[in-house]
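queue> pop job 88
queue> type: inverse folding (structure -> sequence)
queue> payload:
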């Protein structure tokens, strides 16, 4: 549920009492805005729902003079309106599960300070889980996570460290990007520090990478103490039904190699946190395969700068070629042959896209028309 934004555009247009400089966010300095928020909550409560995911910041905040004077700090602004919404829901339906996310509550390069932490401890009395989603970076330092979680009265979670956001209209076999190692290590570490929430992103199940990522998330969250390798092996054994231990081992190596071939070649700075040409956003966190252009999916942004340089693309191409060879060798060794074929197709299509980009930049196959 949007809190003061997300779906309030028409209300803002037609009610000057809630309008501020931001056409997408109601003004927090007027009581009329909270009355509208309550109307929306009351409307939703007419249905049998389990709870609310409260999200206030994705479309910004009101920046009128009154709001800026009262809440010059963005974090305090979003804490205030989220607390209002949570209190109202609790007063109307105390059994509902409430969670909230900190996405865009502050700049991605900033970390929680003592005041931010005090506000979150207070908010933890009002909700059941707070998510430090980490679209570009988690706001809570990992070194401070265990101690801070112990102060909360609710659960703490993330979005699993890294996830792939699928394109809108790509054919579902046009990319293959598993990330079990990245999210698995993060979830295990989060659990060890006391975290008990994961807002796990999914994707189209007819993409082999997305299918395995979804199943892996369920497996590792059901038993976070197991190794990432064991969890991935269990998932691939169930999905592909290999006929021999050797076939399963080879299949696991394909998923691991494909992940390493991409994420291991991203153009990170020496700090391992920022892409060299994208200092404003640590990452990757949420990795988009493509961005929409004129209502359709655009080019495969994830294989280009700032994510991969030409050398990175070439290394990724080499890794995909090795994976494809392994999958071709697996023919006849898996009970789920149709899934193996889809995996082969996804690898071949991805390799073709990456190789085309590499060859074009290197001038391979150019003809002279002089």
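queue> result:
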């Amino acid at each position: 549920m949007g809190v003061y934004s997300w779906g309030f555009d028409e209300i803002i247009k037609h009610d000057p009492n809630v309008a501020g400089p931001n056409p997408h966010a109601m003004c927090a300095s007027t009581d009329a805005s909270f009355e509208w928020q309550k109307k929306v909550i009351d409307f939703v409560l007419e249905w049998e729902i389990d709870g609310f995911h409260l999200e206030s910041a994705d479309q910004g905040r009101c920046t009128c003079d009154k709001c800026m004077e009262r809440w010059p700090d963005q974090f305090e602004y979003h804490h205030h309106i989220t607390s209002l919404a949570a209190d109202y829901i609790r007063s109307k339906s105390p059994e509902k599960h409430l969670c909230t996310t900190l996405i865009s509550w502050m700049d991605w390069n900033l970390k929680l300070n003592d005041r931010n932490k005090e506000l979150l401890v207070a908010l933890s009395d009002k909700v059941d889980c707070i998510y430090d989603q980490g679209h570009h970076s988690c706001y809570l330092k990992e070194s401070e996570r265990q101690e801070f979680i112990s102060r909360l009265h609710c659960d703490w979670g993330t979005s699993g460290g890294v996830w792939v956001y699928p394109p809108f209209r790509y054919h579902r076999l046009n990319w293959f990007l598993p990330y079990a190692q990245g999210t698995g290590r993060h979830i295990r570490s989060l659990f060890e520090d006391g975290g008990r929430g994961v807002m796990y992103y999914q994707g189209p199940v007819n993409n082999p990478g997305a299918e395995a990522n979804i199943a892996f998330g369920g497996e590792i969250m059901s038993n976070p103490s197991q190794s990432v390798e064991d969890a991935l092996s269990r998932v691939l054994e169930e999905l592909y039904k290999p006929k021999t231990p050797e076939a399963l081992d080879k299949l696991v190596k394909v998923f691991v190699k494909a992940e390493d071939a991409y994420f291991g070649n991203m153009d990170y700075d020496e700090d391992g946190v920022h892409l060299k040409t994208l200092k404003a956003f640590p990452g990757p966190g949420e990795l988009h395969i493509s961005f929409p252009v004129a209502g359709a999916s655009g080019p495969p942004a994830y294989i280009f700068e700032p994510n991969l340089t030409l050398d990175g693309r070439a290394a990724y191409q080499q890794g995909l070629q090795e994976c494809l060879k392994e999958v071709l060798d697996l023919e006849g060794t898996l009970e789920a042959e149709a899934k193996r074929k889809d995996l082969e197709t996804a690898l071949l299509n991805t390799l073709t896209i990456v190789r085309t980009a590499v060859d074009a930049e290197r001038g391979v196959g150019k003809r002279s028309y002089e």
